[in-house]
From TrEMBL:
Residues in KilA-N DNA-binding domain copies: 4-79
Taxonomic source organism: Lysinibacillus odysseyi 34hs-1 = NBRC 100172
Protein name: KilA-N DNA-binding domain-containing protein
Superkingdom to which the source organism belongs: Bacteria
Length: 103
């Protein structure tokens, strides 16, 4: 999936690949949001942007707001978790997603 020329992951997909709950991921995001830049680390899709996303990727999104993550955002967010398995999951399940998509 791409948004504004960058490969991205949905919050749900990132949480699943890291092996954490969506709520835990969003809680870490809320704690560290001041360190992240919208448009670089993540995109918040709402209104017309969300409608455009649905037009490209289908109607799989139903919330009024959706966050999608770039490679840099996924990497930074992974670092906010203390559990070693999160880093392992990033290397095994998130990094390959972005690496394969860049070829």
């Amino acid at each position: 999936m791409n948004w504004q020329g960058l490969q991205v992951l949905l919050t749900y997909d990132l949480a699943e690949r890291l092996g954490v709950s969506r709520q835990h991921l969003l809680r870490n995001f809320a704690r560290h949001r001041h360190m992240l830049t919208e448009g670089v680390h993540y995109f918040v899709l709402s209104g017309m942007a969300l409608d455009e996303w649905k037009g490209i990727y289908g109607g799989q999104l139903h919330p009024p707001v959706c966050i999608v993550w770039t490679e840099h955002g996924a990497y930074y967010l992974m670092q906010t978790f203390r559990a070693p398995y999160v880093r392992r999951n990033y290397i095994e399940r998130v990094f390959p997603y972005f690496w394969e998509g860049s070829k």
